[in-house]
Amino acid sequence: MSALSISQSAPRLGPLRMLAAFLLAAAVLLWPLAFGQPKFLLHIAIMIAIYGALAMSMNLMLRIGQLSLAHGALFGIGAYASAILSRDYGWPVELSFVASGLIAALVALVTGPVFMRIKGVHFALLTFALGEVLVLCFVEFSDIFGGNNGFGQIPAATLGGLLPPTRYGSYLLTASFALAVYFGLGALYRRELGIITESIHQNEALVTASGFETLQFRVAVFALSAAIAGWSGSLYAHYQGYISPDSFGFWTAVNAIIMNVLGGAATLTGAVIGAVILIPLPELLRDQQQYQRLIYGLTLMALLLFMPRGLLGLARQVLSSLRGRS
Amino acid sequence: MAAMLEVQSLSRAYGGIRAVDDVSFSVARGVLTGVIGPNGAGKTTLFNLISGTVRPTSGVVLLDGQPLAGLSAGAVARRGLVRTFQMTTVFANCSVWQNLYRAALFRQLPTPAALMNPFTLKARRERAAAAASSALETVGMQALADADAGSLAYGQQKVLGVGMALAAAPRMLLMDEPAAGLNPVETEALGDLIARVHASGIDIILVEHDMQMVMRLCRRIVVLVNGRLLAEGDAAEIRDNPQVIEAYLGADLDNA
Question: In angstroms, what separates the C-alpha of A220 from chain B's closest C-alpha?
């Protein structure tokens, strides 16, 4: 009978997909060796890894239907926390990294029980306000955060000398983190977290009626999302060596949302594809400095208008029409 | 007989309007109880007050002697008081079995603490699967287990809704107009199911518009009019109560 249908929610990957995941991870981590570790490309790739991870943390929020505009600031909290702990308090970078995500999660745990009752536009505005307040703190409390001038001389992460002290070393670290988020969240989505978020999205009252604590769940998801955003921020700080408040504003959150919409299909892969496209765009447009923003905006508008389900949606459409023809 | 559910001077005001006004009654264990009343009598508000989705202005609800005040809707359900919905409510894009499994899973893993405990996860999944299979059997939908819930007929979706409530391990079902929108054949079948569930030892309160169904199933009936308790008694007493005939049936005739 249908005890068999439990296998629908089988949480583990088959051996073939496991192999594919392994090959993907190996390719992501090792390609620079084959291409002579090009510095500029590596820089772009590191940014993609960091902002891709931030986009995936946003994906988690979108799954519970809550558009957070505070994620730029949570990213910033991670960055500042890690920078301050390692530079001013002499903590090892590794420990500062761990703490940075936990501190961001703590902000979510404190604000969550109130914020997560608020839905829709009101939630977006509330998180927008929270983000602005946090960024204002970064600017105003200049003794701690360095004010508008920012905060420099942040030690780089070396994992106790394990990483080569080159840009490729930074890439290995950030890409590993992005892969861990990708596969970790993917595993959670295939398990109960996926079932629950999807059900809440469809009919929250029905989920509650079975005895589920939706509010607590939302807060926990917010905290996990904030932790990932905080860790991404920490990696950003240790890679750049210098941070300032304008990296953590409203636009950082909006870009993370755009990456999700652009990649499309509400999947983690979509969020990463969005990062792969969006991050290099300003660099490619560098020669047209004065038109950079204009072209960037127009490109975005065109992409969103003509691909409402994002690039993944478009790819699926093309694939299915090809299949239909043959 | 011990009261399974006790409602004590429950009131809920919206501005100046008292949707539910000082209502008290109790549901004894094993006595299938119906709450009836014309449209606007306050049935839905009373329903929401008991299930914990609306807070009372004053008064208390006791389940098996325990007050439900201040509990979240989820916590009320975990105490054993599980509600069903008037409109069909199923997860349309997954199978009948998945629907039952989900309901059971939410009951088994209600909090982040339960979700994140790797030691009990497997046992809880198994318990959820067992509860889902048993609910599937109770509602007699084995043949439809793999069908998409959204593709089912309206009546079947309502039966599935009852199954999902059962998968959440209730001690008492609080049913919101289960017969609404059903044809006579479906209503009869649903009535049989309700009687069977009740016979299996789960207490039931039926908040219902369909008089025939209530008269057939309920041993005790509570009549609500304009937010107040008008009468309480067995089917024969209610049928012969002139106040009820005037208020309830009269109002219904006006509507027709």
Answer: 7
How many angstroms separate the CA atoms of B38 and B252, rounded? 7
Q: Are B132 and B101 in contact (CB under 8 A)?
A: yes
CA dist., res. A283 & res. B22, Å (int): 70
Low-confidence ranges of chain B (pLDDT < 50): 253-256
Q: Which are the contacts of B93, defined by CB distance < 8 A and separation ≥ 6?
A: A202, B148, B149, B150
Contact indicator for A74, A104 with CB cutoff of 8 Å = yes
Model confidence at A13: pLDDT above 80: no
pLDDT class of A322 with cuts at 50, 70, 90:
confident
Let me know: does A4 contact A10? Beta carbons within 8 Å.
Answer: no
- Helices and strands in chain B, H and E counts: 11, 10
Which phi and psi angles does A158 have, rounded to 5°? -125, -5
More confident residue, A183 or A287: A183
Expressed as residue numbers, the domain containing A199 is 40-249
Mean pLDDT for chain A overall: 87
Q: Are A5 and B145 in contact (CB < 8 Å)?
A: yes
CA distance B78 to B85: 17
Residue B79's contacts (CB-CB under 8 Å, 6 or more residues apart) are B63, B66, B68, B71, B171
Listed range (A201-205, A215-219, A285-289) with the worst mean pLDDT = A285-289
pLDDT of residue B88: 72
| Min distance B245 CA to chain A CA atoms (Å) | 35
User: Using CB atoms, which residue from B77, B116, B142 is nearest to A1?
Assistant: B142
A4 within a domain of the structure (yes/no): no
The verdict on residue A312 lying in a domain is: no
Running DSSP on this structure, what letter comes out for residue B65? T
With beta carbons less than 8 A apart as the criterion, state whether A92 and A67 touch: no
How far apart (Å, rounded) are the C-alpha atoms in residues A60 and A79?
A: 20
Look up the ipTM and state it: 0.88
* Number of cross-chain residue pairs from A and B with Cβ atoms under 8 Å apart: 105
Please check whether residue A163 touches B, CB under 8 A: no
Q: What is the sign of the dihedral through the CA atoms of B149, B154, B156 and B157?
A: positive
Distance between A276 CA and the closest CA of chain B, angstroms: 32
pLDDT band at A265 (very low <50, low <70, confident <90, very high): low
Is residue A158 situated within a structural domain? Answer: yes
Query: Considering chain A, what percentage of its residues have pLDDT values greater than 70?
Result: 94
Rg value, chain A, Cα? 20
On whether residue A285 sits in a domain, the answer given is no
Side chain identity at A233, as an amino acid letter?
Answer: G
List of domains in chain B? 1-80+170-256 (3.40.50.300), 90-169 (no CATH)
Domain count, chain A: 1
**Nearest Cβ partner of A220 from B103, B105, B112?**
B112
